[in-house]
């Protein structure tokens, strides 16, 4: 997943181990500096290409997840193109990560490729490093969107895979026709 020579920080390794040990299905990474929701892939299929649309096999689901957040955010859903994030208005406040800018080593790509967890990246505000007095407003702008996003955990595949005696089957592979990305059952 990571290019050669790339050093993985101990805390990143710990999160990767945690994600592999618990069957998370939904997560979000919160950043600052823009108002948009991005979804995988963040790394372009053609690394020399900048701003290249690089969808996952689950493109429709990722768009639905990103829209669930964006549509519930009072500023991201604002149709004004003259505000921070206004250049994403025509896209509904969402964009494929690699189409915005390509980078390697992101957690959203890792989660999708190596776990059952679907992750979007939420740029929560215009300031990269907001002042303390701005945090209360940022929280209130994002609270309902976060709650709406968390409710999306009930979408998609869910249930119990069991043997003929009703015992759960650990690590059973689940495939959906037409989507070249399997998931596995948890404990």
Task: Describe the 3D structure.
The chain is α/β, with parallel strands linked by helices. The chain has two domains: 15-156, 3-Layer(aba) Sandwich (Aminopeptidase), CATH 3.40.630.10; 158-186, no CATH class. The chain is 29% helix and 18% strand. The strands form two sheets. The chain has a four-stranded mixed sheet with strand order 1-4-2-3, with helices on both faces. Strands 5-6 form a two-stranded antiparallel sheet. The longest helix has 17 residues, at 135-151. Belongs to the peptidase M14 family. The active site is at residue 123. This is CBPZ Carboxypeptidase. Its cofactor is Zn(2+).
- Separation of the first and last Cα atoms: 25 Å
Q: What's the CATH first level of the largest domain?
A: Alpha Beta
Q: What general outline do the C-alpha atoms trace? A: globular
SSE order in H/E notation? Answer: HEEHEHHEHEE
The structural domain count equals: 2
Name of the CATH superfamily of the largest domain? Zn peptidases
Low-pLDDT stretches = none
> Number of helical runs?
5
